[in-house]
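hey so i finally got around to running the thing on that chain from the lab meeting. sorry it took forever, my laptop kept dying and i had to restart like 3 times. anyway pasting the input first so we r on the same page abt which one it is
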Amino acid sequence: MGTCQTSTCQARRRMTSTSHGVELGKVASEFRLNDGRSLEEASDQQPLVLVFMRHFGCTFTRQLLRGLEQLQKDAEKHGAQLVLIHMLKQGQESQYLGEDATVRSISDPKCQLYRAFGLGKGGLFELFGPRVWWLGMKAIFQGCGVGKLAGNGLQMPGAFVFHHGAIISAQRASTAADLPDLPRLFDGVHLPAP
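ok and heres what got predicted. didnt touch it at all, straight out
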């Protein structure tokens, strides 16, 4: 992600820990991927790259979706599975994902999982600062456009490597314009070979 904060957790955050008052283990066992597995089960089977998106009408979400194939390749290169976290009701994401509707995803309309992973709401600077305007205009001119609000417009994005109930590496966005940078996310992360 652009200027996001990347951290490889030395003392990996176990699922029993809490973030912003929400127990990570509880939500990981409650939330299910669109293939039926719980987040907890899926993370025990292989490393996951969790990409928490802004709302689907956001220019930067549209930009992220344009690069979805590359994100999947980058995750697979590290033996991980890409999982998109969105704020719509289960099944509604397919109208935005189109051909990519088969990608693994988790529906989180109340943003409980976002909070458990330490992703909050953005303020004026994070959502509308000069850098956001500049990158937003570039994305619009590249054809990403702007759509109808489909989710919480204040929610900040982020990306994480999550494995065996632990956050292995994190990128919490500094601005709404920050996109996942998987090479940086995996930098210094040692996972079993695929």
